[in-house]
Amino acid sequence: MPKNLDSLGGRAYSLLRQDIIAGTFAPGLPLRLAQLQAKYDIGFSPLREALTRLTAERLVMAESMRGFRVAPLSREDLRDTMGTRIFIETEALRRSIEFGDYDWEARVVSTLHALGRQLTRNEPDDPENLEALEERHRDFHFALVSASGSRRLEQIIDSLYLGSVRYRLLRPPKGSALPKRNLAAEHGAIAEAAISRNAQLASDLLSAHYRLTQESLEAAHIERLDDAM
To answer: Where residue 223 sits, what CATH number does that domain have?
Structure first.
């Protein structure tokens, strides 16, 4: 494979993944190679490579004789995604609490602090703020499980994160909003339990945190998710 093809494939993958997660491409939308080539100025071969990678991550669906389309969103998929996150990440968290050293504790504390600082910014309609908040949020949750000692688990967690963030970045319909939550307190309690090496409490708090997220997203987007089923 030519060297530039590999780099172009990586660039196509990054751009496509970012636009799918951000909702630039609507769920279920066909992804035509000619349109993608015009948008990104990247050739067909790197784009096919990127679409194949995104299919493996369940962000894109490949249909026989019909090409590719953005994976749809549905209430069933949301519940499956969040339930699987709870199952996988509580195990990874327990392992991290068992094996984590001072560096792990420092990662949890520092990412919690960065997330808290970002949460205090009252700029809900600022795209840059939302992007930074999402990055801080991701950093914290990945720090919690970063001492599990399993790269396989980390890969699964990354894939599940990509699946769930698409729902969290959906804009609520006009006249509705996500229920108010004290996210700083929720994340702080999880971190405190983890650093205190209380695996049961930390797992319970993480599970409750994800269940609240699922319930609030269902409440805000119930009609849209029902229509997708």
So the answer is: 1.20.120.530
- The CATH number covering residue 11 comes to 1.10.10.10
Of the candidates 212, 206, 208, the residue with the CA atom closest to the CA atom of residue 89 = 206
Do both 125 and 195 map to the same domain?
yes
Buried b (16+ CB within 10 A) or exposed e, 25-55: bebeeebebeebeeebebeeebbbbbbebbe
Residues of the chain with pLDDT under 70: 1-6, 122-127, 172-179, 222-229
DSSP 8-state code for residue 178: P
pTM of the predicted model as reported, rounded to 2 decimal places: 0.81
Q: Does residue 43 sit in the same domain as residue 144?
A: no
Helix, strand, coil share of the chain (percent; to 5): 70, 5, 25
Q: What's the pLDDT at 223?
A: 64
Residue range(s) defining the domain that contains residue 14: 3-70
